[in-house]
Specification:
CBASS_pafABC_assoc_protein; Alpha-Beta Plaits; 242 residues; WYL domain-containing protein; alpha+beta; WYL_dom; four-stranded antiparallel beta sheet
Length: 242
């Protein structure tokens, strides 16, 4: 019989590599459901909480967090219970914070906790793999009624970085949204034929490569670092085709 850690590890491994873990008609989802139905409740409960999450193709370097920690976070979200966390900001810098957990979201193999931090009095998106320890408190923690976990995560990933981004795309917003993921920034219609992309990034070289997916003319208004990264990429491509 599986131990709790083994069962959670199995569920998380399947989540990292497969989309339809909650669909009983899917072969992998059906097999996982059969396994969980014969597990003791003490093992199946945490595993079911983790199984309810969703994921996409992993990013290079994505780290799978501790299964037991992830299960505690997911169960606290479901039970609306406040948490006291030990959180590693960076190696050697761990801080204690109290949060109201709202949702655990898996995006491209990275696991995030969406929450309200009472320590910072602000919304926060925390990396689950940086949670060193967790204590469930007997305090009610109700998420906002209008919470959209996926949208909140994408907003967080596209804002607050060092270099501001402004790009004008020669296409309507509906078409631009097919090429530009929400994590790159916010799309603002300018008129019927053009759209403004507003965001920020710490990695101009990486960001410019994402812009090459746009299948319409576009112009980089800012920042200077982003324009320089685009010029460097253009020179490389010209040399490659010479």
């Amino acid at each position: 019989m599986f131990t709790p850690a083994e069962a959670l590890g199995l569920v998380m491994a399947v989540l990292d590599g497969h989309h339809n873990t909650g669909d009983p008609a899917d072969p992998v989802g059906g097999a996982l459901g059969k396994i969980m139905r014969v597990l003791p409740e003490a093992v199946a409960g945490p595993a079911a909480a983790v199984r309810s999450l969703s994921t996409r193709h992993p990013e290079p370097g994505a780290r799978t967090p501790d299964p037991e920690t992830t299960a505690v976070l997911a169960q606290a979200c479901a039970a609306n219970r406040r948490l006291r966390l030990g959180y590693r900001i960076r190696p050697g810098d761990e801080r204690v914070m109290e949060v109201d957990p709202w949702a655990v979201v898996v995006r491209r193999g990275r696991w995030y906790l969406l929450c309200w931090s009472h320590t910072k009095n602000a919304r926060r998106v925390l990396r689950v793999d940086k949670v060193a320890d967790v204590e469930v408190l007997d305090v009610l923690a109700v998420p906002p009624a209008d919470l959209d976990p996926a949208e909140m995560l994408e907003d967080h990933l596209s804002a607050g970085w060092r270099h501001e981004v402004e790009v004008v795309v020669g296409a309507p917003a509906e078409a631009a949204a097919e090429w530009i993921p929400r994590s790159l920034g916010r799309l603002e219609p300018i008129d019927a034929t053009s759209t403004r992309l507003v965001g920020s990034t710490d990695e101009p070289d990486w960001y410019v490569r994402q812009l090459t997916a746009i299948r319409a003319p576009f112009r980089i208004v800012g920042s200077r670092e982003l324009r320089e990264a685009a010029e460097a990429l253009g020179r490389r491509l010209l040399r490659a085709g010479a």
